[in-house]
Amino acid sequence: MLPVEQQQLEVMPQFPRSRPRPLSSKFSSDASDSSGNEKADGQAPEHDNEKTSISDVVSVDGDGKVEGKLSADLGSLEDGAQGLPRRPMRFEAAIFMGIATGFSFLFVIIALDRMLDESMVDGTYIRWALAAVAPLLFCVSLFFTQALVNCVFYTFGPVSQFYTNSKYYSGIAPTSDFNVDKLPHVTIQMPVYKESLEATIMPSINSIQKAMISYARQGGTSSIFVNDDGMQLLSQELREERMRFYENRNIGWVARPPHGTNGFVRAGRFKKASNMNYGLTLALRMEELLEELDKDPARKAALGVDGLDPFMDEEGVLSDHALELAVNETNGEAWASGGKALRIGEVILLVDSDTQVPEDCLRDAARELAQTPEVAILQHGSDVLQVAHHYFENITAYFTRRVNQAIAMACANGEVAPFVGHNAFLRWRAMQEVAFVDSDGKRKIWSESNVSEDFDLSLRLQVAGYTIRWATYSKGGFKEGVSLTCDDEMNRWQKYAYGASELMFRPLVQWLRHGPFAAQFIKFMGSRVPLYYKMSLLAYYWSYFGIAGSFLISVLNYVLLGFTIRVDNYYLKGFELFLACLVLFFAAGNLAHAILEYRLKIRGLGESLVANFRWLPFFLIFFQGLSLSVSYAILAHLFSYNISWSATVKEVESSNFFREVPRIWKRFYPTFIICGILVGVMIVFSTNLVPRGFVIDGRYWAVIFPLALQVGSHILYPIVLNPWLVIFSY
């Protein structure tokens, strides 16, 4: 038995999709005249409020892109937004990034100056071969210097911009400067896999449909479009349960075959992009067939669509038939239902299967996108949707909130907003403009060859002249799930590292022929995107390389300094480097963020200090224990090794000590073997079992400590960060 709230939603699913005006009287023979009204640039004509046909709401431009025109055109909303003050451009981010870049250059210059002094003393210049790694030193230090500057800014800089609007940031919700009955149709797109219907998907749909009902009352229309990658993989019972749920809620869905079925390929290491592409392709083909149906009175009459029955949902009848035709063209490969809900609106809200949304989010997004037509993606900052409430989820929840606050502050300072792939509103026309023809000859929106498909789309949009904006006025109304296990969190960091590597570099095998840098990265660096954003992006990318290299650097530091091998002053000792990172990221960083939260009136200073320092020991183990896994992901890309990741766990899976021990060994045994060997080496070389000149004992604690911390953290990562290990029940 469903809860009362869900029962109410079950009997009201048609309300959010109802039109401000009945469309049944508007499927007229005048549709054939609409093709002559298209604009010269290939864009669809303005929407006619008095007469609307399928040809009006769907057009195909000269490039073969299908334009969905449900409800009013965004252009008409933009007309109503004329006279609004132009949003200011903030320059704090540019200034801070400029200072950070200057510090990084200073570090390189100091290092080169040391080599020059030494060469003038001993007359040896072979050490200048080390200058080859100066660009690497600069790139890796960028994130460090950026964090240093941010600490100063958080403590002493201005913060009022956090509660204002600017080019890349919205701290204030848009006002109603036009008629609400002209709000555009919004498609809520949700890719799902094999998540639990009751525990994950249903709560998300309940939250979304509350927002849809609110939007309908305000004069807008909306629909839910599910890209269900699990439908054809589930048992018959679970499959039928999903189908009934989708039908009862008037949800449109598309499901593709399992990987390998009759040669079908689910492309990509992370299947989300190809899943969404498959659904969008089928929906667009349905639109084309729908247009053909509307132009053929005989076929419409055969379906009983004659415009005489005011109670018939003619659009629904035609859409369902067009979808049936589109599915038939796949020879039974695709499964789909709910043709009317599959029609793409001018705005797409992209959500995950575990999400919550605020009730007025659709109206606010429609207004903001109408007022600022240059914005292609409106990314909302999210709070955390907790389900397990054990200490690891609490840790990741705190870290997610902190990262989102840091991003919001950066965007308020003028930083270009990131696109994180969910809880974001996308302008459909802009997405089509940056679509590309893939290697298989098909036109696609999402890149299936990139792990970070969201970042790839963001770069293409920015290169095309669009902007991305971060919004916080929902005040935590958007919620997202976080990693429930340390395994999932490590997978997430591996995906990010792999994505950073593939967006910057080609695989090594292509370097001689095409050069080291990826074509997209070269295009981005040469684009009109602000220079400070390019530097900030480099800092972010290279932070993963810094994490990846920390383990190997600790080993080299142990060997070079422990065996007293002569090193140049260009070399920065491992303990000094560790101390600098410890003071900046774990001490000053936490203190500065606590002060920022206090200055923003998010919470009191004492409460903020406790919250920011509470999980410090766990984060020390977490970040020190990531290096081998992150380096594995980067090397997998560079050496073209086929690496893949399992789907993120969305529901709590209870476990205990006896189940977790085998799982930990299976996932982390290479790490345990490597670290076990190094522990043995450190023990042996601290005794008299080796010649006196090779003894590295307690006198060399500054040499031993960085490596011991790395090794210890890698061993403790799957143990200390696993809350199920303390449960010994059978």
TrEMBL record:
Keywords: Membrane, Transmembrane, Transmembrane helix. The keyword Transmembrane helix applies. Pfam families: Glyco_trans_2_3 (PF13632). Residues 36-53 have a biased composition (Basic and acidic residues). InterPro entries: Glyco_trans_2-like, Nucleotide-diphossugar_trans. The chain crosses the membrane at residues 93-112, 132-157, 538-565, 577-596, 616-639, 668-688, 700-720. Residues 347-557 form the Glycosyltransferase 2-like domain. Residues 1-63 are annotated as: Disordered. Residues 24-35 have a biased composition (Low complexity). PANTHER family: CHROMOSOME 15, WHOLE GENOME SHOTGUN SEQUENCE, GLYCOSYLTRANSFERASE 2-LIKE DOMAIN-CONTAINING PROTEIN. This is Glycosyltransferase 2-like domain-containing protein. It comes from Exidia glandulosa HHB12029.
